[in-house]
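User: Please fill in residues for this 497-position structure.
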């Protein structure tokens, strides 16, 4: 019997809703078709945003959305995407699939989408190929209330009031598609560009996010912080980190999303758990410059990255999503919770039809993926307080791909209940668990479980093959509960105390 110790009296930090954030790029069928179908589409929509998708996203309480990229942001010139649609430039999306980008989804449409979702806005600026003036004018266009050329232009385009930009990314992957810069050069560029990301509304300050490292590039983190460090207060609110889980670790042959074996299962989960090393090691460097942890680690791209589905455009990054992805999501979200002292936002890549999507669409059809169900279970952690917890685990896995059999995190939710989220990484072994709540009597427990075979997934023909069910097998005894978590599953327990 594995023991899970929970001490509700010891609070470990606030769980920003943004830890469950999302990312949407002009890539494949994420924005176009997946989210935006235009006002004249036969697919039911409100101001061009498809109703089924918006409803499904509202259900998981999307807290924040990053846009327009990714690498697309490094070539995005925002003025191409405003004004009458018939006048907007048509161009090639050079990065993703060479398809025509007609700019019908631009700043106004993004803000409309966030309004419908009720989420915060995270705009990623173009430092790779854009000018300081262009970035500064975009901020002015979106957020300045008074009289100015950009505010007037916004009003001419039909939006009188400024919008709230919650987060602004000063560049994306500037070590790669964002200009192939060295960290010292990026650091200097960051100092310059961020100067003109002005806070026009002191009551609604913009949080500025600097471009952080690619996975284990600790040199980048070190040098960017060293270069920007003495620049004064408020120069940086967050530093990003991008890390994708590739089953093979090989960009040339990543592996299939649905056709994998036991080794592919454990290799993927083992590589997912590397996220913890990344948080600790980048975090340790950040601690040297920012011991008070004022700068958030912003993991604004994470998720699985497989070979595209056979027969689909390789530039569209369309992949299926199985129980393996559900485990990846559950493990990562638990890790973000556990490291909430430093990690302040995380954005899964990407929201619809791209990489580890929570939603897949095909014409007018839509499916919620296993990953969607995990977000739906974990939403109870949003705005909660992380409490102290530890679980006894054993090492399982295959060959060099070892993993603990269980991961967990526990929070005291805004509803006054404890929320325990657990993942069982084993493919064949259920685990008996006794959870002990320090000096806290348990009144009742409600459970929800997502489980199935390792390759189980939802298709347009069988959209509900993987779904959550009530989990009834919990016995309560004073300050203890006992239950058995099945193999290959993600579990949410709502504990009334
Ligand atoms: O999410 C797909 C791509 O991955 C993004 O455009 C880029 O930032 C990253 O390399």
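Assistant: Residues filled in for all 497 positions:
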């Amino acid at each position: 019997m594995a023991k899970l110790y929970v001490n509700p009296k010891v609070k470990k930090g606030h769980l920003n809703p943004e830890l469950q954030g999302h990312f949407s790029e002009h890539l494949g069928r994420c924005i176009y078709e997946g989210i935006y179908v235009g006002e004249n589409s036969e697919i039911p929509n409100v101001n061009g945003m498809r109703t089924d998708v918006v409803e499904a996203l509202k259900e998981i309480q999307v807290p924040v959305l990053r846009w327009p990229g990714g690498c697309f942001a490094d070539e995005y010139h925002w003025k191409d995407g405003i004004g009458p649609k018939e006048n907007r430039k048509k161009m090639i999306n050079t990065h993703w699939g060479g398809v025509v980008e007609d700019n019908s989804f631009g700043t106004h449409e993004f803000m409309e989408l966030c309004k419908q979702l009720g989420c915060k806005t995270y705009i990623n600026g173009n430092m790779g190929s854009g000018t300081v003036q262009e970035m500064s004018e975009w901020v002015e266009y979106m957020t300045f209330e008074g009289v100015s050329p950009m505010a007037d232009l916004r009003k001419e385009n039909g939006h009188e009031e400024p919008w709230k930009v919650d987060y602004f990314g000063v560049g994306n992957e500037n070590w790669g598609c964002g200009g192939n810069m060295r960290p010292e050069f990026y650091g200097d560029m960051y100092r310059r560009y961020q100067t003109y990301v002005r806070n026009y509304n002191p009551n609604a300050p913009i949080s500025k996010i600097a471009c952080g490292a690619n996975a284990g590039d600790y040199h980048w983190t070190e040098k960017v912080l060293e270069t920007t460090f003495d620049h004064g207060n408020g120069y940086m609110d967050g530093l990003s980190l991008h890390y994708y889980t590739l089953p093979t670790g090989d960009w040339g042959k990543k592996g299939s999303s649905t056709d994998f074996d036991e080794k592919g299962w454990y290799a993927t989960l083992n590589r997912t758990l590397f996220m913890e090393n990344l948080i600790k090691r980048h975090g340790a460097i950040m601690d040297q410059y920012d011991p008070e942890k004022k700068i958030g680690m912003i993991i604004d791209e994470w998720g699985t990255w497989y070979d595209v589905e056979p027969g689909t455009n390789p530039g569209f990054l369309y992949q299926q999503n199985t129980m393996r992805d559900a485990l990846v999501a559950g493990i990562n979200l638990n890790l973000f919770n556990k490291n909430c002292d430093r990690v302040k936002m995380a954005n899964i890549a990407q929201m619809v039809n791209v990489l580890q999507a929570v939603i897949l669409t095909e014409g007018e059809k839509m499916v919620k993926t296993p990953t969607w169900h995990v977000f739906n279970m974990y939403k109870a952690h949003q705005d909660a307080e992380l409490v102290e917890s530890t679980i006894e685990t054993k090492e399982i896995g295959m060959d060099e791909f070892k993993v603990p059999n269980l991961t967990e995190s526990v929070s005291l939710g805004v509803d006054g209940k404890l929320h325990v989220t657990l993942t069982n990484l084993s493919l064949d072994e259920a685990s008996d668990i006794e959870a002990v709540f320090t000096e806290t009597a348990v009144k009742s427990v409600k459970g929800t479980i997502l489980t199935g075979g390792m390759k189980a997934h939802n298709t347009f023909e069988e959209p509900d093959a993987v779904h959550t069910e009530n989990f009834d097998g919990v016995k309560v005894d004073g300050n203890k509960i006992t239950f058995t978590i099945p193999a290959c599953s993600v579990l949410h327990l709502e504990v009334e105390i």
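For context: The chain has two domains: 2-8+387-496, 17-382.
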